[in-house]
Amino acid sequence: MSDPTRTSQSTRHATGPAGAAARTPAAAVAPMIRRPLAATFRALITAAALTGLLLAAGGVAAPAALLTRFTVQANLVAALVFACSAHRAWTGRRALSPRLTGALLPFLFLPALLHYAFPAADSTAFALPHATAPTVTQALSHQLLYALTPLAALADWLLLTAPRGFRPACAWQWPAYPLLYLAFTFAFPSAAGAPSPGAALALTIGLAGCLLPLIVIGIDQVRPAPRLRRNRISPKGIGPLK
């Protein structure tokens, strides 16, 4: 298959306007397609993540200390990435790298999985500060950060992105930060703001951090492509060339 960004030997030494046009990569003249629906949905994900973070910060005495929590870090990065993705979809620019957007899925689902499946993990630095009797504000922030934002990111991936965009190298790149963060909680529990997890819980967190990227990459290889808007050489109804 030919590479559209490369020029042939016959056009490489051409001069004048014709030569300049021949040496122009196809990607440089491809029309920009705006995706307002995707942009709106990603802006709503950004708003949900930021709202959850603000509600969580309002319910603690030292909001800056939340920056050491894995849940807060994952949702803060998700808000930044989805804001950038929304801007690119609205202006028709090239989408962000799947290596970056795909990493958000295991990052968001790891604390959500621990929160709902392993209640003991709520006392670790992977979760928000644990409260025996959470207020309405704290309960709402939990729903936004542990449920709504991860599920919305999952829907964006399945419905608004093309499949088979992840590379096998992501299987070892994505778990790197969760494993480093887990080691950080063992080495500096006071800096993490929570006690270190027990051996069994730490093993569970490590396995979940390694398996979630593999699950995401495996699903990406077999899932069907969504009905995305595609480029057309000529508008519908103009001529036989489509």
TrEMBL record:
Biased composition (Polar residues): 1-13
Keyword annotations from UniProtKB, A to Z: Membrane, Transmembrane, Transmembrane helix
Ranges where the record places region Disordered: 1-23
Transmembrane feature ranges: 41-66, 72-90, 102-118, 144-162, 174-192, 198-219
Bias (Low complexity) ranges: 14-23
Domain of life: Bacteria
Name assigned to this protein: Integral membrane regulator
Organism: Streptomyces auratus AGR0001
Upper taxonomic lineage: Bacteria, Bacillati, Actinomycetota, Actinomycetes, Kitasatosporales
